Amino acid sequence: MRLTKQLDGIVDRRQELEGMLGNPDLANDPAQLMKLNKEYAALAPVVEAYQEYQKLVQSRDEAKEILADSDADADMKELANMELDGLPEQIEAAERELEILLLPKDEDDDRNVLVEIRAGAGGAEAALFAGDVLRMYTRYAERKGWKAELMEISESDLGGYKEAILRIAGENVYSVLKFEAGGHRVQRVPETESQGRIHTSAVTVAVLPEAEEVDVDINPADLRVDTYRASGAGGQHVNTTDSAVRITHVPTGIVTQCQDDRSQHKNRDKAMSMMRAKLLQHEREQADKERADARKSMVGSGDRSERIRTYNFPQSRVTDHRINLTVHNLAEIMDGDLMEVTKNLTEADQAAMLAAMAEEVA
To answer: Per residue in 253-275, pLDDT tens?
Structure first.
């Protein structure tokens, strides 16, 4: 296997980490301890898959030795043949799994995310669909065992939402949801349509990796913080207290706001969390613009204007245009059952990276 040297190096590194983590002095350096534990945990799936691959190869080699041994009796050779049956396919599958595990990782894959959903073309119907998409991702988070928290919402006068921001926290959230960024188109008959005509509307989805304080250096002097009275549901307290917070990053003009909580302090924390994520995204977009040949995978760039998926209600059909995937379980998908779609998107991205690496080797 061409990756044996790299895999042996990973095994050696994991053993080295075991020794380092066993050092009692490390307890005095929590940051370093966390860093080493994270690296150790990240190597575990690779080491375990490599050990399983080695067992399969050993079984194959031992069976071949028996078959080549002229002194081996018939029963032993029959057992060896039975052992060999299916092993080549298992070894091939194990090799592919290892290749996937060794693919370059997106530095943000293990981060939590902010999902921004905005009504696009289509007026009231787009706003209603924005609400449907918000529920879809909330239900999907529940199915995955993730935590979903509504950070900000702007209701439409005609129903639905003009904008909603959802924070989703859990294990490797960004690695899955990053493929959801783009334009989501809906085709259905609106409730207000008297003649039964199908309308086409759209929402845009942006998926931002949540930034930690250490990721973005924000000068407090660059921030303008305004407080105001929240509007919407919440009772008398909402209308009599300046609990809502709006933060403006003056150099970039980026604005975040939150009025979801009755506590001004909590609203400020949420607005700052959104600000860090948006500034991190802004910094990366600026860096990408400076690189003329920015990498673009087969599943698309995630640009908000890009139509990535169509939800056709009359035919109960969902089509992801990037990978030509069509499924006919729209009701289940709108209820958060996105597993098949996200699985296919991840596999398509992995296949594209493997193909690119094979071309480089060739």
So the answer is: 999 998 878 888 889 999 999 99
pLDDT by residue (tens digit) across 78-95? 888 888 888 999 999 999
User: Does residue 197 share a domain with residue 229?
Assistant: no
| Number of domains making up the chain | 3
**More reliable by pLDDT, 258 or 333:** 333
Cβ atoms of 141 and 148 within 8 Å: the answer is yes
Alpha helices per DSSP H over the chain: 4-21, 30-68, 74-84, 87-101, 124-144, 173-177, 236-240, 264-290, 330-334, 339-361
Q: Which domain holds residue 52?
A: 4-101
CATH number, domain of 256, equals 3.30.160.20
CA distances from 331 to 57, 142, 164, 295 (A): 45, 17, 22, 35
**What mean pLDDT do residues 215-240 have?**
72
309 and 259 part of one domain: no
Q: With contact defined as beta carbons under 8 Å apart, do 255 and 247 qualify? A: yes
Instruction: Round to whole Å and give the CA distance between 359 and 355.
Output: 6
Whether residues 201 and 229 fall in one domain:
no
Which tens digit of pLDDT belongs to each residue from 24-47?
Answer: 888 888 888 888 988 898 899 999
Question: In the β-sheet with 307-312, what is the strand arrangement from edge to edge?
Answer: 147-155, 161-169, 113-119, 199-209, 182-188, 307-312, 317-320, 325-327
261 located within any domain: yes
Is 237 inside a domain boundary?
Answer: yes
pLDDT average, residue stretch 180-191: 90
Instruction: Report yes or no: 273 and 169 within 8 Å, Cβ to Cβ.
Output: no
Lowest mean pLDDT across 50-54, 192-196, 237-241, 276-280? 237-241
14 plus 155 within the same structural domain: no
- 140 falls within a domain: yes
Quick check: is 107 in a domain?
Answer: no
